[in-house]
Design goal:
This protein has a single domain, classed as 2-Layer Sandwich (Alpha-D-Glucose-1,6-Bisphosphate, Chain A, domain 4). The chain is built from two helices and six strands; from the N terminus they run H-E-E-E-E-E-E-H. The protein has a six-stranded antiparallel beta sheet with strand order 1-2-3-4-5-6. The N and C termini lie close together (10 Å). 11% of the residues are buried.
C-alpha cells in the first residue's frame, strides 16, 4: 500500500530537507505518475514523473523516472523495486539506471536513502498520516 496509495506516497515521497508538495499517479501498467519535491530552505520546486512499466503486486514495481529540470533533466531512468518477505518483514530492494555520470548516481543514492528513511518513519508513525 505504501507504493500504491498516492495519499500514503505524498507523506514520504521526498528526500531529506524536502517535502512532497504534489504526488499523483495512475497506479497501473502504462499509468503515469507525477511528483514535486519542495526544498524546505529555499522553497525551490523539483518536479519529476514517469510511467509504470510493470506492476506485480507485492513482488515488483518498475517505472520510469525523469526530472523536469536540473543537471539530469530529460534523462529517462528506470527504477525497479522488488519486495520479499524475511522474518515477518518486507524487504525492499532498489535499482535505478542509467546515470549520466558518477556524481548523478551518488546524488540519487543520497536522495533515495533519505526518501526510503522517510517511508520507514511514516510506517512507524514518526511522520503523521493515516495508515488505514
Amino acid at each position: 500500500r505504501m507504493w500504491e496509495d498516492a495519499v500514503h506516497r505524498a507523506h514520504w515521497w521526498a528526500p531529506r530537507g524536502c517535502r512532497c508538495s504534489h504526488f499523483s499517479h495512475d497506479f497501473r501498467e502504462g499509468g503515469a505518475w507525477r511528483a514535486c519535491f519542495l526544498f524546505e530552505k529555499s522553497n525551490e520546486e523539483n518536479w519529476q514523473g514517469g510511467v509504470y512499466q510493470e506492476i506485480d503486486r507485492d513482488r515488483r514495481i518498475v517505472f520510469t523516472f525523469t526530472w523536469d529540470n536540473g543537471p539530469a533533466a530529460g534523462v529517462e531512468m528506470r527504477v525497479t523495486i522488488t519486495f520479499a518477505e524475511a522474518h515477518g518483514q518486507t524487504i525492499q530492494t532498489f535499482h535505478q539506471s542509467p546515470f549520466t555520470d558518477v556524481e548523478r548516481r551518488d546524488s540519487h543514492i543520497t536522495g533515495w536513502s533519505g526518501l526510503l528513511d522517510r517511508q520507514q518513519a511514516y510506517i512507524e508513525g514518526k511522520i503523521e498520516g493515516d495508515l488505514s
